[in-house]
Every structure is written in C-alpha cells, then in structure tokens.
Amino acid sequence: MTQPRSVESEQQTRESLAALYRILDRYGMSDLANQEVGARIGEQPDHYLVHPYGAFYDEVTASSLVKIDRQGQPVDADSPWLNDGGQNLARWIFGQRPEVNYFVHGHCENVTAVSATRDGLMPLSQSAIYLGHLVGYIDYAFIEDDDFGDEFMSWVASHDILISHNHGYYCLGRSAREAFFRAYYLRQACEVQVKAMSMVGGDIDRLRLVNSERETGYRDAMYASEDYNYDGKTEWQGMLRWLDKHGLDYKC
Questions:
Q1: What are the φ/ψ torsions at residue 241 (nearest 5 degrees)?
Q2: What value does the CA radius of gyration of the chain take, rounded to a whole number of Å?
Q3: Which residues are bridge partners to 172 per DSSP?
Q4: Are 168 and 112 in contact (CB under 8 A)?
Q5: Contact, 167 vs 112, CB < 8 A?
Q6: Is residue 47 helix, strand or coil?
Q7: Which end of the chain, N or C, is less surrounded by CB atoms within 10 Å?
C-alpha cells in the first residue's frame, strides 16, 4: 500500500529552504544578494517563503524567511524589503503548478552564457541528457508586467526548467532536494558545453552531439534505473550533514 506523502510544517519548510540557500552558497551558486529561491509552505499551500532582499545566501536562516500570500504580498505588515521579482516568481510558479513546492532562480555564468546562444542546451553530456527534456526557453524582460507574467506562466505550466535568454534559469522541484539537483546539474551541463565549444572554436560541426535516438534511449534507461535517483534523494542528506557538521545556524 502506498503511503501518503507527508506534508511539511511551516518550521520544516523554513528549515528546508534555509538549508537550500546555504547549500547553493556552498557550491558557488549565489549572486551576492540577488536571485531568488522560494518555497510553498506545506501545511499552508497558499502561502510561500522568500528571503529578505539584501540578505546574502550564507546569512539566511529559517526565522529570517518572509511569509507571503498567494498575491505575493507579505503577511506581516512590518516585513523587511523584498525582491519584487521573487514575489512575482512565487505567485506565478506556485499558483500555476500545485505539485511544485520549491524553485531556484539563478544567474550562474555558464548557464547565462548558454542562454545567449541560438542553439541553447545541447546533448553533450550525461547531465544535459537527463535534464534536456525538462527545459523550455523564455525571453528575458526586466519589466515584469502582466503580459510577461502570462507568458511566464504559460511556459512554466509545462516545463520544470526554464532558461531565460541572456539572463539565467528557473528550476522547479517537488522538494528542496529536487530543485537543487536540477539547478546543480543544469549548471554542470552548461559548464561542459561552454568548455566544449571553446575547444572547437565555436564550430558546432566539430562537437560530438548525442543523436536524438540515443539521447532518448539513454534518458529512458536513466530514469528507469533502480540504482540512482534523479530527484536529489541520494545526495541531500549528505549535504545536510555537511551543514550540521560545520555548525551552521540555518535552522534558527
């Protein structure tokens, strides 16, 4: 008999999201106080958590996260300054995708470099193969008006990863570990692509692309394998142990 999926309490969600911020920082996936990482509160699915704008990722704690409602507005009138882009992302993503509970929005340099190319992410590596079918592309807009919001939601409705041209990426997950796993390996796939392109002087014809038939076969075999998890389950506890071992105060 399948056991029902447990629902995170607000405190559990706060600790998971704070851990995600710290882990992203550990792996060099922050951008000063910018970018955004958000979570849906499990026991309050119409309320979300984001970080106070100006806080660096290595400063985020469970108690410092700010609760917002489904319109993206702070629940507490005395809440600190928030990134309006993060507020928009929370209401757009969680409002459109009820099964998604976490997202990572980042500006990693190699992902941004790939986003600026016409070919986008190419099947050049294992990580690109098991993520490629999740990826969609959207044009960057600094002014996030209603038209942009509608376009963003139309794309995020059917993609777990969005690459924003000339800007960065958005990785969605049912859990903190899944959102991190996708963000980490998207960065790896793009790093491999940037290096491979540099080695052939930008000549795509000199790259060994995996053809579509093999790509599909490899991907199907990966996801069918009982020896590995593609949602971060294998690695997440180890990353939490690292945070605890180094005495980091993310749970406070």
A1: -60, -40
A2: 18
A3: 103
A4: yes
A5: yes
A6: strand
A7: N
Each residue of 60-95: pLDDT tens digit? 999 999 999 999 999 998 999 999 999 999 999 999
Question: Cα separations (Å) of 89 from 6, 109, 121, 218?
Answer: 25, 21, 23, 33
CA distance 113 to 76: 39
Class of domain 10-245: alpha beta
pLDDT tens-digit series, residues 32-70: 999 999 999 999 999 999 999 999 999 999 999 999 999
Do 128 and 121 form a contact (C-beta atoms < 8 A)? yes
Contact 196, 207 (CB under 8 A): yes
Question: Which distant-in-sequence residues (6+ apart) come within 8 Å of 190 by Cβ?
Answer: 108, 110, 111, 113, 114, 121
- Report, in this order, helix, strand and coil percent for the chain, each rounded to 5: 45, 15, 40
